Amino acid sequence: MAFEVFEKLEAKVQQAIDTITLLQMEIEELKEKNNSLSQEVQQAQNNRESLVNENEQLRQEQNVWQERLRGLLSKMDEV
User: Is Cell division found in the keyword set?
Assistant: First the structure.
């Protein structure tokens, strides 16, 4: 009877070890995925900053062109 108890205990311990091993593997996979996603987020933030800067530059250029156009229209009105 004691032998059966030890066999059951051994089976439970082995099952616990297997579960822990699987969970550790899953944790490693999730860490890798997390790192990958963090890099993607960083890249997206960098892209966003670039686009914001480009947008600001284009807005400034648009303002310059609008001022030039207004100036030309004013000169045409004077003629």
Answer: yes
